[in-house]
Hints:
The chain is mainly α.
Amino acid sequence: MANALYQYAMASGHKLLLFCVSPKRRAMRSAELVRENLATMSSGIRVKIEIDQNLREIDQGEFILPKGYVPGDSFEGLKIGGKIFSAETFNIEDSSKDNLDYHFGDPLLRENGMYRYPKLREYFSASGESYRDILKRFYSGVITLSENMERFGNSIEPVIFTHGQPHQIFSNLADVADKVINEGFTFMSGTLARICWDIYQAKRRNVVPYGQLTFVSLEHVCNPQVIELLKRELEFLKEPAPGESI
């Protein structure tokens, strides 16, 4: 990665790279290693690292861990909770039933007093974020990033370090942005999450193996035309969910 960034910086003329890093330890360590390697390649390229809380992964709630659990052990609750989260958020049969407001680990109490997912009560004492929560963070972060790029111009180049779900969201968003710029694609407010999910499903067989690196260009994501669409989408996401008050 350091070599690729070095080649890019030299070709583009950027002398300052801003590493926007998720608070995840692995992402922070990756950024530090790349900075150290870049320093051995060129003294003319400076690197600044900033931790961005918007890049953190989903809050999965509070766990009820089994006796004898030690960090690093597999936790069945996450496997079950993850499958339910995906199924609730994106309905496999009818996209009109997508529920961006389902919170990770929520057993969903019904009006009759029964739980839709009673098994989750064994693993979670409190539910986590919804997909709406995640997207509001990420889209806000992208909009802020684009504004900073406009302010700094060609003097600085942002580089995002993140893993897992955040990387997936950025990758899918970049694909949509490419279609907007190259094909004139557009979308109605409130539909971007499903569009990105469908892209992810189509690409699942070609995902990068765990531990390997891949680059996602944000050039088109930060294009003013795409940013305007993102701002509209963010306004939609900020509207109160059904049953909530302003």
